[in-house]
Amino acid sequence: MSAVIEIEGLRKTFHSLRSGRRVAVDGFDLLVEAGQVHGFLGPNGSGKTTTLRALLGLVRADSGRMTVLGEPSPELLPRVAGQVGAIVESPQFFGNFTGYRTLRLLARAGGVPVSRVDEVLDLVGLDDRGDERVKGYSLGMKQRLAVASALLKDPRLLILDEPANGLDPAGIREMRDLMRSLAANGVTVLVSSHILGEIQLICDHVTIISRGRRVATGRVDEVLAGHDRHELLVRVAEPERAVELLHAAELTAVVDGGALVVSGVSDPTVVSRVLGEQGLWVGELTPLRPDLESVFLELTGAYEHSSVPRQVGDSSLPQGEAVIDLDRGVDA
Amino acid sequence: MNLVRAELERLSARRFVQLMVVLLVLAFAVTAATTLAGSHKPNADEMSSARAQAAEARRDLEATHQECLARQSGTLPADTDRYFPSDCSEIDPIRQDRLPIPADYLPGVFNFAEQAQPLLYFLIAFLVLFGFLVGASYIGADLTSGGVVNLLLWRPRRLTVLAAKLGTLLGAVLVLALLASVVYLATFWVIGQAAGLPGRLDGDFWRSLGAVHGRGLVLVLLASALGFAIATLGRHTSAALGALAAYAVVWELGARLVLEIVDARKSDLFMLSSHIGAWLNGGARFYDEQLCRGSTDFPYCEGFYTVTWLPALLVLLAITGGLTAAAFAVFRRRDLI
């Protein structure tokens, strides 16, 4: 598959008199291939928005190489801008304009046929609210309008920064369906979010960023599998005795609540055999699969006390430069 | 072209712009209404009396001048009760900017030829303020709200986007200023015709009025660009307002005082207001007593110096052009966060 977005060694430092020097993105890499719905995860201040802004030419990178649809960005971004729909954070629109007029204005500025406005309003579920003023919109409706503005160009690549912000559960579901539908029609989607369950449902690929560095990337199932500790939840009548039996069989097991958590087991039948041979019958035996949230917390939370998170694929990292959190004004 | 059309729609939709236009119309309406209410068409008796008074005033001027010359030449004895200048040419009627005319003796009668220029100055002052504030808020609000970022996601060419905004602003302000001034002057011309006096509307009058109008429009455009540039540099509308207030207090008031204390020569040359006045009026004379110190012409040294319109324009262009170029250079490289 061809690369739609490529970022290599992106580095961005902000300087201010008050806060001094702050590293926002520190040698970050990202690869998004055609047809992917790629989740971009990271805690607040991890560098997600700065990365997207740099990719779209809104902030100047200190170093690194970026391409969008094969063109170096930001130098030749205008060549492909017509095929890239993007929202970065929550764009502000004129409160006095109606939703329709807002989109018509953007369509005119971008040379898009005005007839497209009705189509995208319909796509995001604002077709019956398009003639209302934006200042009367809820946060979720404004977010839909933002997504509609990104869709106006009928893009090949859609970059959405926190598109689910302000949406209610029904809206989140509609947004999910919309992204799936776009992906099915060949649109590549890069979506940043902190709603991990959504990312897991929508995305086929994921990249996790922490303190400006990539800490995980790949297919969602592969990333999850990489953090599978092969744990089993086991329910038996005598948990304490079961632990002793499993320890005797050189397995690691702890009592957690009324159940056992057995770890390091690749074959679950070993557990049922060890316990069964001693007359302890297993009532429940469930593999504990990691979800994106646990992986995310492990990858990003585990480095809270470390100065430099490990970057995926790196064998050694540049040392001696502390990476500190950004304030929300820079990268909320 | 699409970008300019879109920008024009955004500009005209701004509440602040709409408010300023309403204020312009209100100020215009109040001025026209009070002028109309306070003026009447003079009857034949009033006209006759005014003509006689004007003729008498002109005769008095001539007589005073002749008396001055006579006393200077010793034909008449010196009169200590009356003041005559040492140089009688100062009161020579021929050298006066204007001589008494009947309109000066027609109270309550609006004279278009006499009042058009001051009225135009008022309009230009309003339009200069309008241009500065609208220019500053147009880009300032867009930078603050993320409107510029939104636009750059569509057209990732920073200089093109900023130039389209500035071009749209200047074009819109120019069209509005032209329309407003034409309607404004036409209204007062009608008032002069219907409820006052049109006055002497000869070629000199229209040339002079046209020159003030043209220079005024240039000033309006410069003010608009200046507001736009300062707000772009400072990222906020308030940056332009703050810069304007700071300049007025710190430089025009504070520095002027300091320059006077240290006896700086031609200190008015350092003030932007001097150049604005010189440009708008086609030139300006300033008094500086320092010029006469040690002068061999004393006591004939007048202590005046003149700023003509060309250097005044060059100063205004340099400041506006410099700040605008700086705004484009900074915007080209700035992180938009």
Account of the 3D structure:
The complex is a heterodimer of chains A (332) and B (337). Chain A is α/β, with parallel strands linked by helices. Helix content of chain A is 33%, strand content 27%. Chain A has 12 helices and 14 strands. In chain A, the strands form 3 sheets. Chain A has a 6-stranded mixed beta sheet with strand order 6-7-8-3-9-10, with helices on both faces. Chain A has a 4-stranded antiparallel beta sheet with strand order 2-1-4-5. A 4-stranded antiparallel beta sheet of chain A has the order 12-13-11-14, with helices on one face. The radius of gyration of chain A is 24 Å and the shape is elongated. The two termini of chain A are 32 Å apart. Chain B has 337 residues and is mostly helical. Chain B has 2 domains: 2-42 and 106-333, no CATH class; 43-105, no CATH class. Helices cover 70% and strands 4% of the residues of chain B. Chain B has a two-stranded parallel sheet. In chain B, helix 4 runs parallel beside helix 7 and helix 7 (203-234) packs antiparallel against helix 9 (272-281). The model of chain B has no long low-confidence stretch (mean pLDDT 90). Chains A and B meet through helix 3 and helix 12 of A and helix 1 and helix 5 of B.
